[in-house]
Design goal:
Blueprint (H helix, E strand, L loop, with lengths): L1 H5 L2 H15 L6 H20 L3 H11 L10
Length: 73
């Protein structure tokens, strides 16, 4: 039951906003960034599967600019 709660759209939005806030810092904490990326993994994967293949990379990098840094990938 908690798994469904953790994957709720409201919780995922909160994770995304916190990730975005962390990434705007001059020196983002990589552990915090990775923690939020890990929490969003399943939802992010489902979201990417719903996007046409030719648009996936573009949209992923728009929403998650942290993936442009090879260390975060």
């Amino acid at each position: 039951m908690l798994d469904n709660f953790e994957d709720s759209p409201e919780v995922m939005k909160r994770h995304y906003k916190l990730l975005e806030k962390e990434m705007k810092k001059k020196n983002p904490n990589r552990q915090i960034v990775n923690m939020y990326l890990n929490k969003e993994f399943d939802t992010r994967r489902k979201w990417l599967e719903s996007i046409p293949a030719e648009e996936r990379c573009k949209q992923l990098l728009e929403f998650y600019p942290c993936f442009t840094d090879h260390i975060e990938v």
